[in-house]
Sequence to fold (262 residues):
Amino acid sequence: MGMPEVKTEFFDTHCHIQFADYQLDPVKAMIDAEDWNVTSFMAVGCALHDSQEAVNFASQHKNVWASIGLHPHEGARYIRDHHALQQFRDLANKPKVAAIGETGLDYYYENSPKLDQIKLLRFQLDLAKEHNLPLIFHVREAFDDFWPIFDEYQDLRGVVHSFTSNISDLDQVLSRGLYVGLNGIMTFTKDEKQLEAARAVPKERLLLETDAPFLTPKPFRGKICEPKYVRTVGEFLANLRGETLEDLASQTTSNAKELFRL
Fold:
């Protein structure tokens, strides 16, 4: 049984289908997604190798773009590896690189020391400025340190990916002109403050994402997350926000194209 027809198309602005250990065939995952009206994809890197893979994958598919990133978890691994950092810098010149990230700060796990995370974040902010690229931010329990660093830079563009905070943090995001990426977490969270913030994101600042292979939305929990489920996220959010699915899909796809200048 096919999906009910929707007039417009969805953009998965954050997926990791290029990961070497992604347990589904990424090409088949994209074909399956198109049956669900999900037709554009941002393959997001978290380390040097999978950023290279994202660039390679995007080069082979007209509806895929790459974001090259060094995740805050990788701070200790990369910040003193000047050869790796130069290889990463070189990737920014490749065709179809549309963003830098995911980058940011993660104090929830603190897999790398805070100072190393901050240095790696600054490295990527500088690179984004140099190439006039938007950024995909991963910020977890670290906004207090993140904003002063962000505010040192002028005219940064980007999205706070996997936003799961409250109205207060949302206001900080919006006041800086950033976009807000929402994913499957919204379909299973029990936190009313997260849902309140999801309702409050202005439609012109909202992006849809899956974070595939992670964060599979209800009712598909227990399965590997796929880009097609960005439609499921959209259906949930349209209902939550009192919007039509067509309008939400159209607006969020337009937002993605504007941010990534596609």
Observations:
- Residues 25 and 189 are 29 Å apart (CA to CA).
- Residues 10-260 form a domain with the TIM Barrel fold (CATH 3.20.20.140).
- The longest strand covers residues 97-106.
